[in-house]
Design brief:
- It is a single chain.
- The chain is of the alpha+beta class.
- It has an 8-stranded parallel β-sheet with strand order 19-18-17-16-12-11-10-20. The protein has a 6-stranded antiparallel β-sheet with strand order 21-22-23-28-25-26, covered by helices on one side. A 5-stranded antiparallel β-sheet has the order 3-2-5-6-9, covered by helices on one side.
- A hairpin with a 2-residue loop joins strand 22 and strand 23.
- The longest helix has 17 residues.
- The model has no long low-confidence stretch (mean pLDDT 95).
- The protein is built from 11 helices and 28 strands.
- Helix 6 packs parallel to helix 7, helix 9 packs parallel to helix 10 and helix 10 packs parallel to helix 11.
Amino acid sequence: MNEALKPCRHCYCREVPLNLPPPAVFMYRESNNMTIRNEPPSVFITSGFDTEFNSDDVIVVGNHWEKKYVLVGALTAHRSLTFLTLIHKGSNMHCIEVRQPDILEGEEPEEVAVLEGDDWRKLLKQYADLVAEKMHAPKLDTSKNLTGYCTWYYYYKDVTEANFLENLEAMKNHLDSCYKAQVIQIDDGYQTFQGDWNDQDSSWPTPLCEIAKRITDAGMIAGIWLMPFQASTASRVFREHPDWFVKDENGQPKVAAGWSPAPDHLWACLDTTQPAVQEHLVKVFKTFRSWGFTYFKMDGLGFGLMPGKRADANATPVSAFRQGLKAIREAVPDSILLGCCPPFMACMGYIDSARVSGDTAANWPAIRDAMHAVTSRWWMYDKFFRCDPDTLMARQDRSVATVGEARISVLTGIMTGVSITSDNLSTIDKDRLELLGRGANIRMRDVEPLLFDPNTWPRVFTGTVNGVKAVAVINDQDKDLEYKFEDLALDPEKDAEEVLHPLGYRKYVITVKAHDAVLLLQK
């Protein structure tokens, strides 16, 4: 026997048999956080015989031509995440394996739904409603787009207080313009070390409570960035309280490589099952709240699921994570909590918004990848939480994005209703500012893909804008695309107004330039 092989710990594992008519080759799959798979979410399985395909939280399979679909998805995530595997045998879909690694044999598993229907989109919407009910998703006020400014995607970690205050003044000057920010958020760079969130770096000489007052006196919400469950090995909190962190097998704080530069590059995870740690989290958030901050961008949340030894031996990474979120939510019940790098289902019920794309940037590959992640999660919008597409990239400075690519970025804000930017309003061109304003003031609701060819990213979405039928077309190709109105479920004999450029009224056909998008409204 190979001595390197060790037995696995038991976990909850069951399977859902499939009896779909051949050729059942359609599959939609998902990731349980804001990262996105390299391939489109809906695909035709072309490889035959015996193989496996993995998905997180939910999977849909079926016969695309006979319109017979089966959805299997987790409804809860109190103690474990759920991982799904489509087992393909003899060129047929054999079963879907359900695995919950933190549920031991004999323990109560997370709830799982098995749904059947003739439209995979309807199944996903039905599933989203069920999850929201089971996980007690908060009732959201989505009557207006959430707008705001954060420093990260213009200055990154080198942001100074002077940079921030310059942009605060610019935002104040634009309160009556087309782009009105509701939230002004300080991002990474204000603190001394990752983990010492209430300790202010010397590059920010003005007390944060005074900066928050300047924001709120201007009629906006003061926001702050932090990673609540992480502390670097260089931080004061780590040096003073090494016993507060998740331990490895040797009883030492377990460390992971983070994305920050040295000396903040090694991160430990707070053991949120300890009362002292919960008191620490409450103190951090209540201190910020006393300073006037009521919007919290909580980053690095996925690192909060670090496996290891905790004070409560019965806790799992997921249950401990939710204990920490519960303490935070109760500490600042009147604040907006945004989850970043979030394990989606494990956050539900405690956060108001969640990032649903990876980090973006003012260039085409980053804008394209963020758009793909955001649009593939259309069925989550306003159901799990407010879906944050990351910052909208409309600017021309510190950017290599074309205006068409900027329109695609802005459209993600129109589709989700979250239109935060890092653009410097003191330097942005007038036409780019007007484009950003469309992201702030237009909302497309009831979004779902219309034209979807499995194995390609969805490009055409239907919905409504102010009760009027809306069709969004995104061209992520390197060539122009032409669409007939009837293919877009539009009446070719009636005018449709294009409002994203705007191009004005169109009829019969619409040409969408490469790396560009249109938004058509037809009464």
